[in-house]
Every structure is written in structure tokens, then in C-alpha cells.
Design brief:
The chain is elongated. The strands form 2 sheets. Strands 4-5-6-7-3-8 form a 6-stranded antiparallel β-sheet, covered by helices on one side. A two-stranded antiparallel ribbon has the order 1-2. It is α+β, with helices and mostly antiparallel strands and 144 residues long. α2 (49-62) packs antiparallel against α3 (115-125). 20% of the residues lie in helices and 38% in strands. The relative contact order is 0.28.
Length: 144
């Protein structure tokens, strides 16, 4: 995984971006960082609803985000879970498929947060044998 350019969270938050919580980094303004994390690995954690909720809540806190609400749904015994942490700075969600040994995490953060810290938190608390992380900047502002 490539490291986030600034692990210490030293973004510029001038008046231009503070009003809407857009991020300004290296002269670019955008809505936020969006990480898609595909995780393959065996373990009961893929069907443990309480643990999944704890993982996404802790990842939000690690990133410096504000958790507004946490929702989850377990589809049945030994079946998958969908969970989302609603954040003041957007969301972190996960969908698990224990029968496939797979989980898909989604981290979208704006404002004064560090999504790389959320990624590290998930990696520390989820058992995996393979992980794929994609990162994009959402809502890039093109200046004239």
C-alpha cells in the first residue's frame, strides 16, 4: 500500500475550504479521500456484528472523525453483515461475506481527518490474508 502523502494530517484548512469541509492539499481542493478496501481472510470476525461495528467505529475515531451514528444488519446465522458509521465528515462502511471469506470496506472522509489512519486501524483489527486498497480524490475543484 502506498502511504498517504501526509501521515501527520497537515492539510491546509483556509477559509476557502473550511466553510464546506473540502480538503486542500498541495494546491488541490477536493471533497475528500475515498478508499475502497477489499479484504480476503477467514475468521469469525466476518460474521461477528459487534466486532465489525467496533472496527469501523474505532477506525473513524483513529482518523479524527466524529461518529454521529452507527447502524448494522446481520443477515442470518453464519451470514454476512452490512454496517455503516455515519460521520460528520462522511462515512465508513463494510459489507462482509463470510461464506466467501471476503469483506469490502469503504472509507470516505472530508474535513480535518486522516483517512490513512482509518485504513491502518482496519488493517490492525481485521484478520486478512490478502488486501487490496484503492484510493481516489472525490469532487475535485477545477480552478479557472
Amino acid at each position: 500500500m502506498k502511504n498517504f502523502p501526509d501521515p501527520n494530517n497537515n492539510f491546509s484548512f483556509d477559509k476557502e475550504v473550511q466553510k464546506d469541509h473540502f480538503v486542500k492539499y498541495k494546491g488541490k481542493i477536493f471533497a475528500g479521500h475515498h478508499y475502497l478496501i477489499d479484504v480476503w481472510g477467514e475468521g469469525e470476525h466476518l460474521e461477528n456484528e459487534d466486532l465489525i461495528k467496533e472496527i469501523i467505529a474505532n477506525s473513524a475515531i483513529a482518523a479524527g472523525a466524529t461518529v454521529l451514528d452507527l447502524h448494522s444488519h446481520k443477515f442470518g446465522e453464519a451470514e454476512g453483515i452490512s454496517a455503516i458509521a455515519l460521520l460528520a465528515e462522511s462515512h465508513i462502511s463494510v459489507h462482509t461475506w463470510p461464506e466467501r471469506n471476503f469483506a469490502a470496506f469503504d472509507i470516505f472522509l472530508c474535513g480535518n481527518t486522516n483517512p490513512e489512519k482509518a485504513v491502518r486501524s482496519i488493517k490492525q483489527h481485521i484478520k486478512f490474508v490478502k488486501i487490496k486498497i484503492s484510493k481516489i480524490k472525490r469532487g475535485k475543484v477545477e480552478k479557472n
